[in-house]
Design goal:
Layout: H1 12-24, E1 27-31, E2 36-38, E3 43-47, H2 58-72, H3 92-107, H4 122-126, H5 139-150, H6 159-177, E4 223-224, E5 229-230, H7 247-250, E6 262-263, H8 269-272, E7 277-279, E8 284-286, E9 288-289, E10 292-293, E11 296-299, E12 302-305, H9 313-317, H10 323-331
Parallel strand pairs: 1-3
Antiparallel strand pairs: 2-3, 4-5, 6-8, 7-8, 9-10, 11-12
This protein binds iron/sulfur cluster (2 copies).
């Protein structure tokens, strides 16, 4: 005798990520002819379960695609495969950025191993080390930092964070019920995440042994520019700890982080270097080229100012490790 079906069962982790994608503005459709593919029209196509390996997880695959969207920015929703070329190694750097971001976001919730990718890039992911953003000279790290900052903005926020937290809740409970089997279930890869930092910033798991007293972002008066509050020197380092930075490795404030280097009245640069000065209707500024101040030079990756002794007042007053320095470094992906 047949019975009427009134409900259906679905995997809760999959439900969380299908809903997260939907709230972010994307549909997910299972398909037979692609592993994972974004069509640029609002749909992510992901292979049906019959085409996946035992350790493939729909949640991870959606999460990975969302990380791609974070690296490429909101305009990428309208581009096929987020605008990436998947047929060559041309965009490997952007794939690496996606994996660094995926590792950072997942680690905050104890999901770095559970939500690890299963593609050819798995070995890269596994070799990332405790801090996937440690090498700030690596362009894929800079892209990942910019993606991480986007995760706190629309349309990803708050859905991505909620999906990660819900996944951690589900995994933690399911891991305790998982029966022994020849292939341990993925839920067993859940790890307790680091506790929150007292400032509310993400905890500094990768900076064991460091404290706020040695962080460049803590000003002499005890204010942390990252936390925007006074912090005790003895607090353990948060995720955003940076010991120091060398302006010659950075150059952010002289290049695309800001759009203009204005010249104050009486600045000698206007007399000593007139060919570098552009006079606007109500102000004068140093000319720009390819998005940076023309006086900035880059020799073998080291930035320097060709008019350093005559630099304008605004450059003289610009404070290394100050609030505007933080803004500049964030804009180019050098600081969290
Ligand atoms: S940014 Fe630096 S000073 Fe601020 S809380 Fe983190 S480690 Fe401490
Ligand atoms: S942004 Fe800060 S660290 Fe970078 S060059 Fe400017 S002052 Fe130096």
């Amino acid at each position: 005798m047949s019975r009427e079906l009134r409900h259906c069962y679905r995997d809760p982790l999959s439900e969380v990520w299908l809903a997260a994608a939907y709230r972010i503005g994307l549909r997910v459709q299972r398909c037979e002819d692609a592993f994972a593919h974004s069509d640029g029209k609002g749909t992510i196509h992901i292979a049906s379960s019959a085409h996946l390996d035992a350790d493939d997880c729909l949640a991870q695959m959606i999460f990975h695609e969302l990380c791609h969207s974070l690296i490429e920015g909101p305009d990428s929703f309208a581009r096929e495969d987020w605008g990436l070329d998947n047929s060559s190694h041309h965009d490997d750097e952007r794939e690496h950025a996606t994996l660094r971001l995926q590792a950072c976001l997942a680690a905050r919730y104890g999901l770095r191993e559970l939500l690890a990718p299963t593609t050819d890039f798995r070995s890269f992911f596994d070799a990332l080390g405790r801090d996937p953003l440690a090498d700030r000279s690596d362009h894929s790290v800079q892209l990942a930092i910019m993606g991480l900052r986007r995760s706190d903005t629309n349309p990803w926020w708050p859905h991505l964070g909620k999906a990660l937290q819900s996944s951690a809740d589900i995994a933690q409970i399911a891991a305790g019920w998982a029966a022994p089997s020849s292939l341990p279930v993925l839920y067993r890869l859940y790890r307790s995440p680091p506790g929150a930092h007292p400032t509310g910033l993400p905890a500094g798991r990768a900076h064991d042994g460091e404290d706020c007293s040695r962080c460049a972002w803590r000003a002499a008066d005890g204010t942390c520019f990252q936390a925007q509050q006074p912090v005790d020197a003895a607090l353990p380092a948060c995720e955003r700890f940076e010991a120091a930075f060398d302006c010659q490795d950075c150059g952010a404030c002289c290049r695309e982080a800001y759009h203009s280097v204005t010249i104050a009245e009486g600045d000698p640069v206007a007399i000593r270097h007139p060919s570098l000065v552009v006079h606007r209707e109500s102000y004068s500024e140093i000319a720009r080229e390819d998005g940076h101040c023309v006086a900035l030079q880059n020799q073998a990756g080291r930035y320097s100012c060709t008019i350093y002794e005559d630099r304008p007042t605004c450059c003289r007053e610009f404070e290394n490790a100050g609030e505007h320095c933080l803004t500049a470094r964030r804009r180019v992906g050098l600081s969290l």
